[in-house]
Design a protein that fits this description.
Largest sheet of chain A: 7 strands, antiparallel
Largest interface: A-B, 101 and 101 residues
Order of helices and strands of chain A: EEEEEEHEHHEEEEEEH
Structural class of chain A: alpha+beta
Strand order of the largest sheet of chain A: 4-3-7-10-11-6-5
Oligomer: homodimer
Shape of chain A: globular
Chain lengths: ~200, ~200
């Protein structure tokens, strides 16, 4: 297959789907929420997670001021909430009140853990780095919360029981299915035997 | 629902599924490949993408030395390749030869763009930050390559035509389905009307 090549990278959504999250923060007397699809794990021990946020966002100010945030991983049935949270700013509205978001404060941070999230990472800000039009907010994961029904005995996501919400770009959303086990060592062994024939 | 709370965050895979990628690098006379599930966009203009890589990996040395890498986004039918690439080190084997990986050099970088990737970001290293047991490798996306059949007219991923490979942790893989349009502005409007009744 011949690939299209372009150095003008707009619209920059070739990397989706990505898990749809709501990042919560708390400050100036209220909770705020922001939909974020740019996020990743950064370290296993200690556990570190990062989100990328534009300085234009109200959440940006609240995390800088509080040094805390929570990454809430959202199931498919919360697509409307994720889209609504993305559709307005905490500067203009109290999203928790407007959208009747049910939550509790984190166990280790003040930012909110959403009732409908299937998992949440409570983070304390370790570092911030400006790259282009966003900043990386790097957080130590000081506590994890999760819904038992969303995970199997190995704490791997059971996507059949609690389908996750995946973001595709351009206000499009889907979910993830399947959980095939691929034995890396067996596959390598088989490939080597095959290539030596 | 009552969430389980834990400050011991092991096994740290509550954030999956994530898109399965193969990060390629080139140096010391050969191409190398590594499976990476820790990656995210960092900026739209300029386009910046990052991957998180352990200093234990051979890819780590090659990116530090070359200042270049490619993030290859893999379709579901390449699960075996992603697992095999994850199952051995470029220090021990030539993965491109061993697994008969078909590729071309990038248009702007020397690292390889895989024939079977549905999209690829060619990156030049802008910055590197150590966090815990991994480093963030932050790259300016100097070129994008993609398979036209994997995207619709808006360049949104057509997951029905080319299903992506999603990583779930613990050597488990699935894919992503669905592409529902959620109109954020309409949803906000409806919620506000509802809450004022």
């Amino acid at each position: 297959m011949t690939k299209t090549v372009r150095t003008n990278t707009d619209p920059f959504q070739f990397h989706y789907p990505a898990g749809a999250t709501i990042v919560t923060s708390r400050g100036r007397g209220k909770d705020n929420a922001m939909s974020v699809a740019w996020h990743t794990a950064a370290s296993r021990k200690p556990t570190i997670y990062l989100v990328s946020i534009s300085p234009k966002r109200y959440t940006y100010d609240l995390i800088v001021e509080s040094g805390e945030f929570v990454v809430n991983f959202m199931p498919r049935d919360q697509g409307d909430l994720v889209a609504m949270v993305a559709g307005c700013s905490g500067r203009d509205v109290d999203k928790f009140k407007e959208f009747r978001i049910v939550s509790n404060p984190g166990s280790k941070v003040g930012a909110a853990v959403l009732e409908t999230a299937f998992a949440a990472y409570e983070c304390k800000l370790m570092g911030r780095h400006t790259y282009g039009d966003h900043d990386l907010f790097v957080g130590e994961v000081v506590a994890v919360q999760w819904e038992a029904s969303a995970f199997d005995a190995n704490l791997t996501h059971d996507v059949e029981n609690v389908p996750p919400l995946m973001y595709l770009g351009e206000d499009r959303y889907g979910t993830s299915v399947g959980s095939d086990y691929l034995d890396r060592e067996e596959l390598v062994k088989a490939a080597r035997q095959g290539s030596s024939v």
